[in-house]
Specification:
Layout: H1 2-57, E1 58-59, H2 61-71, H3 73-94, E2 99-112, E3 126-141, E4 144-157, E5 163-177, H4 200-265, H5 271-306, E6 315-316, H6 330-340, H7 342-363, E7 368-376, E8 381-388, H8 395-462, H9 468-503
Parallel strand pairs: 1-6
Antiparallel strand pairs: 2-3, 3-4, 4-5, 5-7, 7-8
Length: 506
């Protein structure tokens, strides 16, 4: 009996184990299938990502410039300054139009003692409540202003009936000699700086000058960012050319090593030649690694300018071979720059504004004479003349005159200096382009010569008419010529870009 129970229990246990094993097997198969499908999907997604990334990593100069201008702190700051200058101009232009004011007092309560302060009379506290509204307007008129006000007041005093009081008044004040205030504008390139003041016309003129200066500063920030990007972009092209030259040099060294090895097996090359050829291959491998590192640094430099991750892979759009275009005479480039560059235009505007500021400051030395008048709702009116003269001397006005004179002289000097700087910059970039193109021509001819020499030396080496050192020297000369050509191509592109920037072309 016991044995039957044991056998039955064992059978059930065996069946349970079998069912458990079968279930476990099925679960594992499902898990394996799901894992396989997931891996295949991830692999496909990774491939698609890589393909997309390959497209994204190729960037044109225009795309890079767009990203650089959005990322450059100088450009962003200049754009913010221009926005503020435009807001200031809007505020200044608004000062030429009437200004309306509305003042209301919904509720006011208190007490007063009309008898206080009168000797012999006993005081009496009077409680009151009041509510009022006042509407005013100010209209700039020339160098002065006219104002209009209308008010109404409801009030009730203790034991008295409520009453409504209203009325209007017109006032006008116009300076006829001198100026009540001096305007100081905010101009660029050494011009006058300070907050705008004076009449609305003065404030608008000062605000317009500030906008022009902000626009110029933005253009200058963009030009600086563009120049930095050109340097980085062409540097990337240069280093890519150097890497390609290093790889080609490695292939030639390996080919030469195979030739030396074959001749060594035949007993026609020494052990020293074989060792030296092998060292040449290793040296070429190191040169490839160094060129790759330089290219990586160039990629990081460009990524920094366009706001991307420093380690992101990036490929510049091939610009093709540099094509020499006929250059205009130097004088024509100089004249174009003087006509297109904004520095002289801005300084000329500053000079004109500085002269106006000088006239304004000189008027401050005169007595301040103004006419005024008023008219009220009850028919009363007044008219008069005000005369103001600071005695014994108006040192503030004298200081303003001297400052304005200095601003005029500074603007004249800045104008001469700006034109001379433009001439010097254009001349320097013009000659730099000529030198870069001459260097390119020399590099191209050096390539042809080096290729021919290497072919001759390799042929001679196969028949024993040249040594291993002759071939190695020819390979090194060709590598140097290819590296020089890569530098020359990038140098020509950069030199032409700098000339274009110096001329002021957009």
């Amino acid at each position: 009996m016991v044995m039957r129970i044991f056998e039955a229990t064992s059978l059930r246990h065996s069946n349970d184990i079998h069912r458990y094993s079968e279930t476990k097997r099925r679960i594992l198969l499902v898990v394996f299938a799901f894992t396989l499908i997931s891996l295949l999907a991830l692999s496909q997604a990774f491939s698609l990502t890589q393909a997309f990334a390959s497209d994204v990593n190729t960037i044109t100069f225009g795309e890079a410039l767009h990203l650089a201008l959005a990322h450059d702190s100088g450009v962003v700051s200049s754009r913010n300054a221009l926005e503020l200058a435009n807001l200031r101009l809007v505020a200044a232009e608004a000062s030429r139009y009437p200004t309306l004011t509305l003042n209301t007092s919904p509720f006011e309560a208190g007490w007063k003692d009309p008898m206080r302060g009168i000797e012999g009379l006993e005081g009496n506290h009077v409680y009151y409540v009041a509510s009022g509204i006042r509407l005013g307007a100010v209209l700039p008129v020339g160098k002065g202003e006219a104002s209009f006000s209308m008010e109404g007041l409801y009030s009730k005093e203790e034991s008295k009936d409520p009453k409504w009081n209203d009325g209007w008044q017109i006032k006008i004040s116009l300076p006829i000699i001198g100026r009540s205030s001096i305007s100081t504008g905010s101009y660029g390139l050494g011009g006058v700086t300070g907050a705008g003041g004076g009449s609305p016309e003065d404030q608008v003129r000062s605000a317009k000058a500030a906008v022009r200066n902000a626009e110029f500063e933005l253009d200058r920030a963009i030009a600086k960012a563009r120049s930095g990007l050109e340097t980085a972009y062409h540097g990337l092209l240069r280093d890519a050319g150097r890497l390609e030259a290093a790889r080609m040099n490695l292939e030639r060294m390996e080919r030469h090593f195979a030739m030396v090895e074959a001749r060594h097996a035949q007993g026609n090359a020494s052990d020293l030649d074989l060792i030296d050829a092998e060292q040449g291959v290793k040296s070429a491998e190191i040169a490839v690694d160094a060129a790759g590192h330089a290219l990586k640094i160039s990629e990081m430099s460009l990524n920094r300018l366009i706001g991307r991750d420093l380690n992101a892979s990036i490929v510049p759009e091939p610009v093709g071979e540099y094509i020499k275009e006929p250059l205009l005479p130097l004088d024509e480039y100089v004249n174009l720059a003087l006509a297109q560059r904004q520095e002289p235009v801005l300084i000329e505007e500053n000079l004109a504004n500085a002269k106006i500021e000088l006239d304004t400051a000189r008027s401050g030395l005169l007595p301040q004479v103004s006419v005024r008048g008023s008219l009220t709702d009850d028919g009363s009116w007044s008219i008069g003349v005000d005369l103001l003269k600071i005695l014994p001397r108006d040192y503030a006005a004298e200081f303003a005159v001297k400052s304005a004179e200095n601003a005029v002289d500074a603007s004249k000097q800045n104008l001469v200096a700006a034109r001379e700087a433009i001439v010097l910059e254009v001349t320097g970039t013009y000659y730099a382009l000529l030198e870069a193109e001459a260097h390119l021509s020399l590099a191209e001819s050096a390539i042809e010569k080096a290729i021919a020499v290497l072919g001759i030396r390799e042929t001679q080496y196969t028949v024993g008419a040249a040594t291993h050192q002759d071939v190695t020297a020819a390979i090194e000369a060709l590598h140097e010529a290819e590296t020089d050509l890569a530098n020359a191509h990038a140098g020509c592109f950069a030199a032409r870009s700098r000339l274009t920037d110096a001329v002021g072309a957009k």
